[in-house]
Design a protein that fits this description.
Layout lengths: L6 H7 L8 E3 L2 H4 L8 H13 L10 H6 L5 H31 L3 H27 L6 H7 L2 E3 L2 H28 L12 H20 L9 H20 L3 H7 L3 H16 L5 E3 L4 H23 L2 H22 L3 E3 L13
Length: about 350
């Protein structure tokens, strides 16, 4: 029997270049993680997880409903799309961390995964309640059962999760600081929650920073090529995706290009705690190539919308252009970085 799901759930269940994915990994390999090289910093971080300073954060206060206002249809569409992408991403982490915790015997890693599952479940639930206000809540149970999972080796999980959590922090804090200075641009009350929320993202990234730094081989040799790949993939995906929401950024009083490069700047500074290389995102040629990648994706989507035989060749040409541009971005010079002796950072941006 086919389960009927709403449009939001169908969107969350899609597999495209820009939609968040669900992941699975080799849990037996995670059992071998030895965090003793970073034990002191690890213990301090775990105490913070246990303290749970966000236990009361994800509760909507009385003023939440008072601040909700009708949105222009185009803005509402983009904002809902943003929320669907966000809830899918948060719930993806919840599902992955939960599966690891359930099967893990390594007590250090199991406890971490339990804490992170707790946090991500709160995030996903909070976003989904906002979607429910728009009448389009995502069926998270359906996603858990039906969404296709992508297998990643543990080290790929480390790189990708570290970056997604840190760039999530940079995104949230940049929006929060901007709307703090320009409260008239806060078109929805959920943005008021971004400050303490992003501290969860930051701490999650700290956990994976310590896991990576506990295994020095992960930042040496050919693994630097993988670091380079994941940095570029995360930045490029964000750049292309954010430019599909012009109404939302205009409503916030932000230019998506300026916003993205500010987020890249923050993420680059943070990532120096764990990555021996960073991308030269401020280099004019890098920016030009990123924009070329975006324009090729716009042309591809337009051709798909038109349909017909001619669109097939147009899309193929755009796909080739995107591939070549990505390779050129990958080959763009990087900046080297000496890893600090102390790994952990404070969320000070």
């Amino acid at each position: 029997m086919t389960t009927q799901v709403n449009e939001a759930t169908q969107t969350a269940n899609q597999e495209t270049l820009l939609t968040p994915r669900f992941y699975t990994t080799d849990i037996s390999a995670l059992e071998k993680i030895d965090i003793s090289p970073v034990q002191a910093e690890w213990d301090q971080m775990m105490s913070e997880f246990e303290g749970d300073n966000n236990v009361d954060h994800f509760v909507r206060d009385e003023s939440f409903h008072e601040e909700v206002q009708p949105l222009d249809p185009h803005l509402e569409k983009e904002f809902v799309d943003f929320l669907i992408s966000s809830v899918t991403s948060e719930y993806s982490g919840c599902v992955l961390y939960g599966k690891i915790a359930e099967q893990m015997e390594n007590p250090e890693i199991r406890k971490l995964m339990e804490y992170m599952r707790r946090d991500e479940a709160r995030h996903a639930g909070f976003i989904n309640r906002t979607l429910k206000d728009f009448g389009v809540a995502v069926d998270l149970g359906f996603l858990k059962r039906e969404k296709k999972e992508t297998f990643f080796k543990p080290k790929y999980i480390y790189y990708a999760t570290y970056l997604s959590e840190k760039i999530g922090y940079a995104r949230y804090i940049t929006i929060f600081r901007h709307l703090e200075r320009n409260p008239e641009k806060r078109f929805h009350p959920i943005f008021r929650w971004f400050h303490r929320w992003c501290n969860d993202e930051f701490r999650h990234g700290e956990a994976f920073a310590l896991i990576i730094r506990s295994q020095p081989e992960l930042t040496r040799g050919y693994n630097r090529l993988w670091i380079r790949f994941f940095l570029l993939a995360v930045y490029a995906t964000m750049y292309v995706r954010d430019h599909t929401r012009p109404e939302m950024f205009e409503a916030m009083g932000l230019d998506p290009t300026d916003y993205d490069f500010e987020v890249f700047r923050i993420t680059t500074e943070i990532s120096k705690q764990v990555f021996p290389i960073t991308l030269a995102t401020d280099a004019p040629h890098f920016r030009e190539l990123l924009e070329k990648l975006r324009q090729a994706k716009v042309s591809m989507d337009a051709a798909k919308e038109r349909g017909g035989i001619g669109s097939y060749f147009t899309r193929a040409g755009c796909a080739l252009s995107m591939s070549v541009t990505f390779v050129r971005l990958y080959c763009h010079p990087v900046e080297k970085n000496e890893l600090p002796e102390q790994v952990r950072l404070a969320a000070s941006w």
